[in-house]
Amino acid sequence: MFYINCFLAVLAGTLIPLQAGINSKLREYLSSPYYATLISVTVSLIAVGLFCLIARLPLPAQTTITSAPAWAWTGGIVGVIYIFMVLLLAHKLGATALIAGIIGGQMICSLILDQFGLIGFAQHPLNPGRIVGIVLLIAGVALIQKY
Q: Three-state SS for 117?
């Protein structure tokens, strides 16, 4: 099951540059990163809403909804900021440099989240292997963005 999950993670990763390219093209047509972001998240809302209707998923109980901590409601804001930043940078950096930078940022943030077990992640302390891995990744990002 571990390998299937790793494969699915890689598959999900392939969607990131596709989304960046598609949204960047939408930005060109609309001449606005703001409206391109709005359309992107609106289409996402409609797609997820249709999925929930088709799958006949029951609504969560009100007590379940109100028991979530305040920070748990900020994921949508983070998603909008991510989409907007990609829309601003995709045409300037190109797919490879953009995604390299994103991966570098993801790895740094992930190390911090794992180190301290933040926002529900299991704690995985820094160790020499992780440190060397992130240094190599950052070096790779720098090389990709420079050349």
A: coil
